[in-house]
Specification:
The complex is a heterodimer. By secondary structure, chain A is α+β, with helices and mostly antiparallel strands. Helix content of chain A is 43%, strand content 19%. The two termini of chain A are 23 Å apart. The chains are: A alpha+beta, B mainly alpha. At the A-B interface, α1 and α2 of A face α1, α2 and α5 of B.
């Protein structure tokens, strides 16, 4: 929840938060300019918080936390509920903070977010740590280089699964599609076609953290 | 692009010792910034309310009483009424300024949690809210006092002494109610109970419009419990020499201090408990 002070404007929220940290007015004034710029809220400076969109409020909440120049920033699902554009703006801003040397501690359900922002990450399931490494390291250890996603239609997925299993070491049968793990996805698709198995749709992609999560916890993030 | 100063880092920037001693004033500053937003409304309420009230009760009813019995307690009705009116207005203002921010801070908007994420402590938030409320009370009561003065309610300069007694009533009651507002999770019922079963009876049965001694004994306990009665008695003693024994004079003061101390402790406990959830 973005617990900003609704009665105050964007600028005043930044100002008063600085005051809570005991900072002097002469320090806060230029800091506000820097933070408004950072949060891309310069034009909204005099607007009451109530009138902001969800993404703006989230950016302001993060900008507010930066007023005291923290060494560590803890973010609990920072982009949950934001539209894709707002997420990308926020990721960009968080990445800049990382570049400035601020340590970010993020909890998230979005694997793409973790992949974008984290140097090290821990996969947790039901309170226990399942794995810990860099995003690339985790993918390398727990998944293949590529993934072939095929759909045969909801009814047929389970039926063809045994035949697919013969073609690669690991497959995951999801309700709507089958994931086939291989180092060369195109080659695997070729083999599939040669065997006379023609999926309705197919997609070759790189392995992602989502595949790691699936491997480690045995369930998709949709659960 | 704004000029970006080199990072100093919070360890260097934030002086936690200073916040320990002065943190409550940052909360006051926030509250005052909000007051300033509705200053015209605050001003008009501060002037219009007492003006209308004094016109109706002080002058209208007062004329009737002065004509029939030559005033109350040896003075004209408005002089008798003034300390009670000031204390009532002070309490009402204090309640507005402790109840709404507290409910908002804990429930509606949760901004107390944001404050508490800084080095500001739960106690400092409670202190800040009360100090800010008292600044508004001081403002309103001074306006009210001036209007009473213009209506001829203060026969001597001592009349102004009803302002400190009104402030005392507001502080004692405000602290206690702030604790209750922090404790409550059901704000709908809270307002109903507060207004119907606490504010109204206190206003009516605390010797506001007539002396408590003219009430039947089985109703007087409301006044004895009420900070309004204790402060009104003190105010009447100070402003026009209403008779109270030395023992009662001391008792009124002790009661108000005790209520304030208890209220503040209670509020501190509730704020701390709620913010650590």
């Amino acid at each position: 929840m973005d617990n900003l002070d609704n009665a105050l404007t964007v600028e005043e929220n930044l100002y008063i938060y600085g005051r809570y940290f005991g900072l002097s007015k002469s320090f806060i004034r230029p800091k506000i300019e820097e933070l408004l710029d950072f949060a891309q809220l310069v034009e909204k400076r005099g607007v009451k918080v109530e009138a902001l969109s969800g993404g703006m409020k989230r950016r302001l909440t993060i900008a507010r936390a930066l007023v005291s120049e923290p060494e560590i920033l803890m973010l609990d699902e920072p982009t949950t509920g934001l539209d894709p554009q707002a997420r990308h703006i926020l990721w960009d801003r968080l990445f800049r903070l990382k570049e400035q040397g601020v340590t970010l501690l993020i909890t998230t359900h979005y694997m793409d977010e973790a992949e974008q922002l984290c140097d090290r990450l821990m996969v947790m399931d039901k309170g226990s740590i399942m794995a810990e490494d860099s995003p690339a390291g985790l993918i390398k250890t727990h998944s293949t280089k590529e993934v072939l996603e095929v759909r045969f239609g909801s009814d047929r997925n389970a039926v063809v699964a045994p035949e697919l299993r013969e073609l690669c070491d690991r497959i995951e049968v999801l309700p709507d599609r089958i994931l086939m793990y291989a180092d060369d996805g195109e080659e695997l698709l070729h083999q599939l076609n040669q065997k006379g198995l023609h999926p309705l749709t197919s997609l070759v992609r790189r392995s992602s953290l989502e595949d790691v999560f699936l491997r480690l916890t045995g369930r998709t993030l949709i659960d | 692009m704004a000029q970006v100063a080199p990072r100093q880092g919070s360890l260097k920037l934030v002086n936690t010792e200073r916040i320990k001693s002065r943190g409550a004033f940052a909360v006051v500053e926030a509250r005052v910034m909000i007051f300033m937003k509705y200053l015209p409304a605050l001003l008009s309420v501060a002037v219009a309310n007492p003006f209308l009230y004094l016109l109706a009760v002080g002058v209208g009813v007062g004329k009737l009483i002065n004509a029939h019995s030559g005033g109350v307690d040896g003075v004209k009705y408005l002089t008798f009424l003034a300390p009670a009116l000031l204390a009532t207005a002070a309490i009402q203002n204090a309640l507005d300024e402790v109840v709404f921010p507290t409910l908002e801070g804990f429930k509606w908007n949760k901004n107390f949690f944001a404050m508490n994420a800084t080095p500001i402590s739960a106690k400092q938030i409670a202190n800040g809210v009360l100090i800010a409320a008292m600044t508004r009370v001081l403002f309103s009561v001074t306006v009210y006092g001036t209007i009473i003065f213009l209506f001829g309610g203060f026969t001597t300069a001592r009349g102004w002494l009803a302002i400190p007694t009104a402030l005392a009533a507001a502080a004692a009651f405000g602290a206690f109610i702030m604790g209750i507002a922090a404790w409550t999770t059901n704000d709908d019922q809270f307002f109903m109970v507060l207004n119907r079963f606490i504010i109204m009876p206190l206003f009516l049965f605390s010797g506001t419009f007539y002396q408590l001694s003219s009430m039947p004994i089985y109703l007087r306990w409301v006044g004895w419990l009420s900070p309004l009665w204790h402060c009104t008695e003190l105010g009447r003693y100070l402003t026009y020499g209403h008779h109270i024994s030395a023992y009662m004079f001391a008792f009124h003061i002790v009661y108000i201090i005790a209520m304030f101390t208890f209220g503040m402790n209670f509020a501190h406990r509730q704020f701390t408990k709620r913010l650590s959830r």
